[in-house]
Design brief:
Elements: H1 6-16, E1 20-24, H2 28-41, E2 45-49, H3 51-57, H4 59-72, E3 77-84, H5 87-95, E4 100-103, H6 110-125, E5 130-135, E6 139-142, E7 145-146, H7 159-169, E8 173-176, E9 181-182, H8 193-202, E10 207-209, H9 217-226, E11 228-233, H10 235-251, H11 258-280
Parallel strand pairs: 1-2, 1-11, 2-3, 3-4, 4-5, 5-8, 6-9, 8-10, 10-11
Antiparallel strand pairs: 6-7
Length: 287
Amino acid sequence: MSLKTNKELLDRAKAEGYAVGAFNVNNIEQTIAALEAAEEEKSPIIIAVTEGAIKYAGEPFFFDAVPKMLEAAGVPASLHLDHGKKMEMIMKCVGKGFTSVMYDGSSLSFEANVAETRKVAEAAKARRVSVEGEIGRVGGVESGVSSAPGGDEELLTDPEEAKRFVELTGIDSVAVAVGTVHGMRKQTAKIDLDRISAIAALVTVPLVLHGASGAPDETCVEVVKRGIHKINIGTELQKSFARGVADFIASNPDVIDPRKILRPGMNSMKESVRNKIRLFGSAGRAW
């Protein structure tokens, strides 16, 4: 199956009323786990990668191996650069098999964010790569992405500003700040659902929720109803992977084969991905 762009995945999700999960991965084991879950659930999937993940696993892995893995997947899949900040890396991803990139100019002034995001959109879309921007600031720290504390009123996305941002930049989807925080290890985020509805009423492109590991399950279901059509999950996957590996080592201290040690982590992470796919309503939506 050919790689899809985020635009293809998310426009369809918006039309049919579900969200596609963007699952952050750092290595081959996590990539395989996420894809296995998507294939078993017959769900479209976005494999999300940060600049830090590329530095860790190496460019050959994410530029050569992963695009081939997604091409061979049995479900529609996109390879997405998450929170891109360096133009050099963003454009490298555009030319090396990524089908979607995010430019994160959320720490800039509105005018500067518009100008820089528009540059990325013009360059990437000329190569048929879809583009995500961010307006407002999702706080916290995850995978090298840091920002101000989340949830502060002045950092949340203003609906009218979001509308202007999308119109001025030409992006295909927009990440909004509505109360989630990157790196949350407990599902205690207090999300402004009415703000999501207000933004969705004004913005024509799909809305994106970052930092959703901190969102309670019932809230994940509700945000989709309110207009979110891409949901990013990272911290929860790291937790489940680490827990699976730790439990196995504790029970099998003499095992040294990394394949046997890492597979329980993969299985644990796969269950986390599977659960999110079902919550987001994308199970059975592969085409």
